[in-house]
Design brief:
341 residues; mainly alpha; two-stranded antiparallel ribbon; 14 helices; 2 strands
């Protein structure tokens, strides 16, 4: 049963990154200069995200619920030690959602000043939320969470402060921006917009490589060095080699404007990154000063796990077909045509 729950956590995190992460990336993209294409880009983001962005948060909620019910000690440790990053993350999610909703459904769309405020709030909160997601991810397995800490700094700040978490945060931001550019390329037939998104996808792709290298470099100052971990694990090396080959394929598809293949390869790259993270730390959910917290040692009683697994399996029968229908209905709408730019 524990394996089933870990699978659901991994699947939910992957879907949240692939779907919700691209939404964050779309907000970050709107912070970049767009010139005369700003209006068309804004309209495209609204049309692409409007019907589905709320559904994408379901995956994060699912992870929280599984941890809360199935692994209460892991959930408690995570929420207490990383209280400040969690609060910052939730604040960003709320502000971002409110700004996007008001911008998209504002009755006075012609009020340019109000629209600019909504757009900037949407973009900045997207960047803010992606940043704190990276900080939280980096803090999970640093071994700096002290379960016996008494002073506030050691208990609530030290676990997530450092150069390495900053590097991971930058890495996450680049991944989200990269996904958004790749996905948006396939949402329009307007040549100027497609060219803009393709160009930014290529740049973001390069930034993912550079920021990933920075993550490896800054990890040398951590208790667990990523280069050393990779060199002692053939599976991790295989994942890295495959991801590198996909980078080459991605550039080839971007240059030849193969939209569907570009999306598939981009999703595959992100999947490999998360797979590498899993292989690096599994079966541990957290690493503390006192030792790792494993899913297998920190699980709830069997009766609770059984009911949780049943609920997830039954829910999947309804959730996945509903989501497929949602995307099928709204993603089959007409795309922005060249004369609308």
């Amino acid at each position: 049963m524990i394996d089933i729950l870990v699978f659901f956590i991994g699947a939910a995190l992957l879907l949240y990154v692939l779907l919700g992460g691209s939404d964050y990336g779309a907000g970050i993209l709107e912070l970049l200069p767009a010139g005369k294409l700003r209006g068309a880009q804004k309209h495209l983001v609204n049309e692409a995200m409007g019907p589905v962005w709320e559904a994408n948060h379901m995956w994060l909620i699912l992870v929280v619920v599984i941890l809360f019910m199935g692994f209460p000690n892991i959930f408690t440790t995570l929420m207490v030690a990383l209280h400040f990053p969690m609060l910052a993350l939730l604040t960003g999610i709320v502000v971002r959602g409110a700004a996007f909703t008001f911008r998209h459904y504002d009755a006075v769309q012609e009020d340019a000043r109000t629209q600019r405020i909504y757009t900037w709030l949407f973009g900045l909160s997207s960047l803010w939320t992606a940043f704190w997601l990276g900080i939280i991810v980096a803090s999970l397995n640093r071994g700096t969470i002290d379960l016996e800490a008494r002073d506030p700094w050691t208990a609530y700040v030290a676990p997530w402060v450092g150069v390495y978490p900053l590097a991971v945060a930058g890495f996450v931001i680049c991944i989200f921006l990269f996904l958004a550019c790749v996905y948006l390329t396939g949402e329009t037939d307007a040549p100027e917009l497609r060219s803009r998104f393709s160009r930014h996808a290529a740049i973001a792709n390069g930034l993912v490589i550079l920021s990933g290298g920075l993550v490896f470099a800054t990890s040398l100052r951590e208790k667990r060095s990523l280069p050393a971990e990779f060199m002692h694990n053939p599976k991790l090396i295989a994942v890295m080699v495959l991801a590198t080959l996909l980078f080459v394929a991605l550039w080839w598809f971007i240059n030849r404007k193969r939209t569907l293949l570009t999306r598939v390869v981009a999703s595959g790259q992100v999947t490999l990154i998360l797979a590498g993270w899993y292989l690096l730390y599994a079966p541990n959910a957290l690493v503390t000063v006192q030792g790792p917290l494993s899913f297998y040692r920190e699980a709830a009683p069997d009766a609770t796990l059984r009911q949780l697994v049943i609920a997830l399996l039954v829910g999947s029968v309804f959730i996945f077909p509903s989501l497929f229908f949602l995307f099928r209905v709204f993603k089959s709408k007409r795309r922005i045509e060249p004369d609308e730019v």
